[in-house]
Structures are given as C-alpha cells and as structure tokens.
Design a protein that fits this description.
Length: 767
C-alpha cells in the first residue's frame, strides 16, 4: 500500500482553505486542514467530502452529444471522442460568427467564489475576447460586483479586506463567513479573542451573529436606511475624521444648489482649470480652487465642510454647499426613529452601534450578498461606503486595507474586443456604470436576446459550468431561452437541469484532479502574499479534462493558437507568473506554496491618491451624476412591496453543506441537509397552522415552491428565508428562483431582488 500526502488547497469556494490530501494507491481517501497554511486552520464539510465528489457515480466522464430534441426528458446522449466534440464546437462557433457576427456568440462561466472555476476564469475570458464576443454571462451582479467593483465610485477600488490583526471593531453586513468564507470566520474569531468588537447586520441570527457584541436585525432590503442612520448618528455628534475628510475626500468641494453641479476653478476665473474643484476657505471666508494635490497647503486654510456659502462666480453669485453638508442633509432624513420604523431595528440599538463604532476604532467591515441581491443594491453599497468613509479608516492599520498582492500578468485579453464591438455588450446602453462595462451580462438580457432577438439575436452559448436554471431568477425565461438556443455547449461535472438543454456536454474534472494557481489568499497581509500551485491529488476521472485544457484545445481549433501561447498551457502559466519572479517549476517544488516577501503599505492614497476622478474618496460621484444617476447615497424602498396577498418578505441565504445548486448528490453532505428548508417565525407558522418540520409552500406572484418549515424565533415574524438550488425534486421543492421575477433589478448594476420579495406561506395542500 502506498500512501502519499499532498499539500494543496480546497478550491470549492472563495475561502481557498489550505489542506493536505491523502492518496492511497492512487485513490484520494481524505482531505485534512493544513495548519501551516495561511488559510489552513479549518476545513468545512464540503472539503472533507472531496473523495465523494471525485468518485461520484453522477460524474460525466465522456464528451456527450445530444441526439433527441430539447425538452424531451431524455437528451439521447451519444458518447463521442474529444476530437469530435472540439471539432463540432469550433465549427459551431465559427458558423455563428460568420452568420451573425461575434456578438451572437455568448460565453458563460460559473461563479469563481462558489466553484473551482477560478482555476480557469482568466483563460475563459481570454477565449471569449479572442473570439471578439462582447457578451459573457456570470453571477457578478448578484455576487461580487458590489464589493469588488461598485465601491470604486467611492473608494476608487473594491472594499479591500478587514485588517483583522489590528482592527478595533468589525462590522459584518449581510455576510455570514461561518457559512461562506471559513478563513474569514477564523480571522474574526481570532480578532475577538484579542478584544475586537463585532457588529453583525443580518435579518437572521446566523453564524457569528449569535456571539456578536451587537446583532442588528434589519428588515430585508432596508440596509441603506440603516447605513444613513448610522452615518447621521456619527455626523451629528461630530464623531468623524475631520482631517481625513478635509484633505483626502471630496467633503469640502462646493456643489451648486439647484443643479447639483460641482463648482470648478473655471467658474472663478476664465483661466481656471475646469477639472479643479472649489472649496470654501473658512479662514479667509472666500472660495478658492482646491489644492492640486492634497493635503491642503496650510492648516490655516481650513476648508469648510458645513454650511451654505455664496460664491462670486464669473457668472454671478451662486449658492453652494460642500459635499459633506449635502451628505449630512441626506443622512439627516434618517433619524433613529425613522430608521427604526423602516428597518425594524430598535432606535436605541442604532445609537449603540454608532457608539461601538466610534469608541472602538479602527473600524473594518465586510459586506456581501445580503446587501447586494437587491433592487436598491447600488445605493445601499454607496451608503455603507459613505458611512465607512467617515471613519477615515480606509487603508489604515486595522481598517479595510488593500494588501499587497503577488503581481501576475493580466491575461484576460479585454482589449481584443474593439470599442465598437464592446458597445454591443447586452445591457450596456441601459446600465453603462454596471457590470456590462466589463462585458458581463445578466441572464435577463441574454435570454431576451435569445428569445426575442432584442436588441439583436444571440444564438450560441458556450458555458464553463453555471446552472442557470437554478441560480438565476425567472426560471421560466431561462427554460425557454436554453431550449431556444441554436447551439449550447456546456462544460460540467454532472448532468444538471441546465445540462439537459445542452447540445454538447464536455466532461470537466474536479479541482482535486487538476493543477490550479492561487496568487494570494486574501484574508490577511500574509495570506495575500502567499502563492500556491495546487497539484492534482489524483488524475482526471474517465476522459474528463480541466476547463483550461478545453479552452486551449478549442483555441487551437479556432486558429487562435498565437493568442494562446502556441496552445501550450505551460508556456501560458510561465507568462502569467513572470511579473512575480516565480515560475511553475519553483512552485511545484514548494507544493505548500511560496510566501513572497511583500510589504503592505498603509494609507497608499497619501502617495498615489485614490483611484477616483478627483483622486480623493468621493461621497459625490460625478460619474454617476453624468450618467443621470443620483450622485449621493440614498435609501429607496424596493419594489414590489408586500400586499394583502403576499404580506411576508422572502429572502434567501446559503448553507455550509452546499454551494448554490451543487453537491446534493454527495451522500455525506445530503445526510446533513437532506431536504430543502424554509425558515419562518413560530408565530407566523402558528397563525397558518404550520408546525416545525411540516412541508409547506412559499408562493409569490411568480409561482410556488414546497419546502420543509424550520421554525426560528429569532427571525422577524414578517420575514421568510428560503433555500435555492435544489433540483432533486420533481415539483421544484427548494428552487426559490422560480419565485423571483428577474424584472425587479438595480438600475445601476442590474442586481436582482432575491432578498426582499413579497411572499406568502401556507401548509402544503394534501396531494
Ligand atoms: N457554503 C457556501 N459557501 C459559499 C457559497 C455557497 O453557496 N455555499 N457561495 C460563495 C459565493 S458565490 C458567495 S457570493 C458567498 C456569499 O457569502 P454570503 O454573502 O455570506 O452568503 P449568504 O449566506 O447568501 O448571505 C449572507 C447573509 O445575508 C443575510 N441576508 C439576507 N437578506 C439580507 C438583507 O436584506 N440584508 C442583510 N443585511 N442581510 C441579509 C442572510 O441571512 C445571510 O446570513 O459565499 C461563497 N461561499
Ligand atoms: N435565490 C438566490 N439565487 C442565487 C443566490 C442567492 O443567494 N439566492 N446566489 C447567487 C450567487 S451569489 C451566485 S455566485 C450564483 C451562482 O450561480 P452558478 O455559478 O450558476 O452556481 P451553481 O448553481 O452552483 O452552478 C455551478 C455549476 O458549475 C459546475 N462546476 C463546479 N465547478 C466547476 C469547474 O471547475 N468547472 C466547470 N466547468 N464547472 C464547474 C457545478 O457542477 C455546477 O453545476 O447564484 C446566485 N443565485
Ligand atoms: S470554506 Fe469549505 S468549501 Fe470553502 S474553501 Fe474552505 S473548505 Fe473549501
Ligand atoms: Mo456568489
């Protein structure tokens, strides 16, 4: 018997937990934590079930071609060779481009935060771009957009990472790391042992909320009101970092009353720079151009943050207020009483939260899908970012920090899609400031193009994972569109409901059967400096191959070998790693990973400014105003609203046993969570004659979904929390996405209202 122990990391979710795999006579038998790894303190049940995932009888092990019409229960899969499969796919891609242009060809990819497709994410984008397709569908608008991209309107970058090692207070907002990001949960617990405070904002008392210093329970979708209310509590008591705001934010910049236009130096002087903002010098009592580079020239020239000032411009007197005054006014609309009314959080808890924050600086925060799967997600994100901006903790020790990352080459090839082609990205015209600017499209836009040819027809979809039928709202639309596609190729591990609409099914090996590069593990300065080339623990099962292999083989057949390093993934990896000074061989020789000697510098803005148009943290965004949007954060209630028929509010959340629609076929995980659950308050249940464990149904104006009731007295009686992603039941049990319409979405980002949707619950009628 030969036993080998191999260093690696679990690639199943964003946590990328360091691990050690045990292989006995070529068979993966177990996976354990690797405590020496920066994210290796613990593993969840999904990693421990790795052998089950590899050897699952449900795995697709050969390329398969459909022989029967779509919609029939049996696709009539015919086994074909890889050569046949790749030739067929290359032919269909070429034919689509010739007939309708590259815009008719869309690519898809599963979420890199909840699958291992992160291994190949960049190469899949490179392929789409090399084909000149402007359309790539993935989950971003409901997933990472609001933490990684949208905050750029305020911070010039994503939210960064809490500096857990030295933070004073942590604010986890619609984020449950105990379920969704084990390495962050571990870091939070370590910080708490050190004495750091924890505030959790979540409609459910889930995960770390149980032991938090303060758990705030907002009504789903009301988070923007809470953020503005907390900001109000800090502003009105003067508990903000005035120096930071005056020097490094746009807080002092004057904006004209009425048209909301920021004044520029050109308003003061015909030779003034129209790109230079204007501030009110409190000492001199006059308006002046802001210094070209902060900090302000002399401490005596104190810029006003408050008040209303009449500025003598070239065109006459103009009444102006500093951005901060305007922000304060927005926040003033949210006194604790009103916030309490809208969020359901007692007013005194809002004061307590503000005190905890102000008395335990530095503050760090993390927010994820609890705030982003909403029709008002962009403004909620702006409000939370503004609240955070007040503390002056951004990129400061113990705040949210952009740790130094291992430098690797950007291989996505974004620039290969010409501006003219890029302009065709679906949804870009409607939401130019959202994900379409990166070529990422929503299911609604893609499926409309497929079904109605609006604004132009899309006929061919090539997707690397993703289970659109279960993960996107408006299941009916997804169903019709997938059926309607001229050609749909899907690279998958198992035959999902989405796969049943594929014309061509390509077998993908699991992460445990392939190499994967992780340049940086996110959760701390040390973790982020760690680079690892995860080895394959065992060879690919059957004829399954990695997504990267498929991309490179397909590229060669499409005549794109040149763009793909001669079609050789190894050469590509060498190129990708080159800026880091590492090469694949060095990494293979150090399977536990290599710690680069990267130093994290704090407050980098003092050198470089923020990556915003003004170089400062921006509470007022001219880019948003220019796009006809509100330049300041605000809170607007989501629609549709509850009514007599649907008086309850439906939200959804994740569970430790599964990622999205995956893993239900793995017996050890299924035993822990055998059936789909819906959480409801005992009073809500009792009023409807529902007992714990009963099968009930949740209905919305879109449809119905059966699930088992789980009573939870910590929930609001008005809130229902469902699971999604179950596809093992014929009547759609546990598939919450059939309950959401997909037509209620955020006007900036296109994110769907998946967390505050009017619903009703009832006992399941007898069959
Ligand atoms: N086990 C597991 N881990 C995962 C994944 C998975 O599917 N399973 N998926 C991965 C991916 S792709 C992602 S994006 C992350 C997501 O990670 P998280 O965002 O942490 O995941 P969720 O549990 O969906 O949502 C977090 C919390 O938001 C709360 N919530 C619901 N509605 C609201 C609301 O209106 N306001 C507020 N403030 N909170 C609300 C829920 O109760 C939940 O506890 O997890 C990643 N990790
Ligand atoms: N109602 C509701 N809906 C949601 C959410 C919610 O909270 N509530 N969360 C949303 C979020 S945050 C996200 S990210 C999306 C996720 O949406 P999807 O990305 O569609 O995620 P899954 O449904 O898990 O489907 C992923 C598929 O990819 C396959 N797969 C796994 N690993 C690989 C791999 O390495 N290569 C390939 N080719 N395939 C692989 C899996 O077998 C699985 O079938 O769902 C969203 N949908
Ligand atoms: S949290 Fe679980 S699934 Fe995610 S990387 Fe860690 S062990 Fe894997
Ligand atoms: Mo996600």
């Amino acid at each position: 018997m030969t036993t080998t122990r191999l260093h690696g990391y679990c690639a199943l979710c964003i946590s990328r937990c360091g691990c050690i795999g045990t292989v006995v006579d070529g068979v993966l038998t177990r996976v354990d934590p690797d405590p020496a790894h920066p994210t290796g303190q613990a593993l969840c049940v999904k990693a421990k079930a790795a052998p089950e995932a590899v050897y699952a009888p449900e795995r697709i092990l050969h390329p398969l071609r459909r022989t029967r019409p779509k919609g029939e229960a049996d696709p009539g899969w015919q086994r074909i060779s890889w050569d046949e499969a790749l030739d067929l796919l290359a032919d269909r891609i070429r034919a689509t481009i010739v007939r309708l242009g590259p815009r008719a060809l869309a690519f898809g990819v599963a979420t890199p935060s909840g699958t291992a497709v992160a291994d190949s994410f960049a190469w899949i984008h490179r392929l789409a771009h090399a084909c000149h397709s402007p359309n790539l569908i993935f989950a971003t608008e409901n997933c990472n957009w609001h933490k990684d991209y949208a905050p750029a309107y305020t911070f010039g970058a994503g939210i960064g990472m809490p500096d857990y090692a030295s933070t004073g207070c942590m604010l986890l907002w619609g984020f449950n790391p105990a379920t969704s990001w084990l390495a962050q949960a571990t870091a939070v617990q370590q910080a708490r042992k050190r004495g750091a405070k924890l505030i959790v904002v979540d409609p459910r008392r889930a995960g770390l909320a149980v032991s938090a210093d303060l758990w705030l329970r907002p009504h789903p979708g009301s988070d923007g009101a809470l953020a503005l209310g907390l900001a109000h509590a800090l502003i009105e008591t003067g508990r903000y970092d005035r120096d930071f705001l005056a020097q490094w934010s746009d807080a002092p910049f004057l904006v004209a009353d009425g048209n909301e236009r920021p004044l520029t130096a050109a308003d003061l002087d015909p030779d003034g720079d129209p790109g230079r903002p204007v501030l009110w010098n409190e000492t001199l009592g006059t308006a002046q151009a802001a210094p070209r580079r902060p900090p302000n020239a002399s401490p005596k020239e104190r810029p006003a943050l408050r008040g209303c000032h009449t500025v003598a411009t070239r065109h006459g007197p103009v009444r102006c207020r500093p951005v901060f005054e305007r922000l304060a006014e927005r926040c003033r609309a949210w006194p604790a009483d009103r916030v309490a009314e809208v969020t359901g959080i007692p007013a005194d808890q809002i004061g307590q939260a503000a005190d905890l924050i102000a008395e335990n600086l530095p503050l760090s925060f993390f927010t994820w899908t609890g705030t982003c799967q909403h029709g008002n997600a962009s403004q909620t994100g702006r409000a939370i970012a503004a609240l955070y901006g007040l503390t002056g903790c951004l990129d400061a020790p113990g705040g949210n920090v952009w740790f130094s990352k291992p430098p690797v080459a950007d291989v996505m090839g974004f620039a290969w899609v010409t501006p003219k082609e890029r302009a065709l990205t679906l949804g870009l015209a409607e939401r130019p400031e959202g994900p379409p600017q990166k070529g990422w499209i929503t299911s609604r836009d893609l499926f409309r193009a497929v079904l109605a040819g609006e604004p132009y027809p899309v006929s061919c979809l090539v997707s690397f994972g993703s289970n659109f039928l279960l993960s996107k709202p408006n299941t009916r639309l997804s169903d019709e569109a997938l059926r309607q596609l001229d050609f749909f190729a899907l690279a998958e591990l198992v035959e999902t409901p989405t796969a049943r609409y594929a014309d061509l099914l390509l077998p993908v090996c699991s992460a445990w059967e392939r190499e994967g590069l992780q340049p940086g593990f996110l959760v701390s300065a040390a973790a982020e400096a760690h680079v690892q080339l995860r080895p394959a623990f065992v060879p690919p099962q059957g004829e399954s191959r990695s997504d990267t292999w498929i991309v490179f083989e397909l590229a060669k057949r499409l005549g794109l070998a040149e763009q793909f390093f001669g079609g050789d993934p190894e050469t590509a990896l060498v190129q990708m790693l080159a800026p880091s000074g590492l090469d694949p061989e060095a990494l293979r020789a150090a399977p536990g990973g290599i710690a680069l000697g990267l130093e994290t510098h704090y407050r980098k803005y003092r050198q470089d400014g923020f990556a915003t148009p003004s170089g400062r943290l921006e509470f007022h965004s001219e880019r948003l105003r220019g796009a006809g949007l509100d330049p300041l954060p605000d809170h607007l209630a989501e629609t549709p609203a509850t009514d007599v028929h649907f008086p309850l509010t439906l939200t959804t959340a994740k569970w430790p046993q599964y990622c999205h629609s995956q893993q239900r076929h793995q017996p050890s995980l299924r035993r822990r969570m055998p059936e789909p659950l819906v959480e409801i308050h005992p009073d809500t249940a009792a009023a409807r004659g529902i007992a714990d464990g009963d099968w009930i149904e949740v209905t919305t104006r879109m449809g119905r979904m059966p699930a088992r009731a789980r009573l939870d007295r910590h929930l609001s009686p008005l809130v229902v929390c469902a699971q999604y992603g179950w596809w093992q039941y014929p009547d759609g049990a546990g598939d919450a996405n059939r309950l959401f319409d997909g037509e209620c979405f955020d006007p900036v980002a296109g994110s769907n209202c998946l967390r505050a949707y009017p619903c009703q619950v009832a006992p399941l009628p007898p069959a």
